Amino acid sequence: MISGRKLTWLVAAVGLAAALWLLLVPRPVQGPGGLPKGGDFTLKSADGPVVLADLRGKVVLIYFGYLNCPDVCPTSVAAA
Q: Which of 1, 9, 11, 73 has the fewest CB atoms within 10 Å around its CB?
């Protein structure tokens, strides 16, 4: 019979092994239909076109605000 202390250590070791496996095993990110998410694209800006590839190695956050919806959008755009 396994004592309470040994069972606790066993459960902790299995949990740690599972967490490490989830964090370290690379898995491709899949979108709808099994296609990879994302990809390179070009956006128009006041300063000219912006290509995502030009920002490689930097943190990129893209926010899209909608100006024509009565409830949440005007507040959300004003806060951005």
A: 1
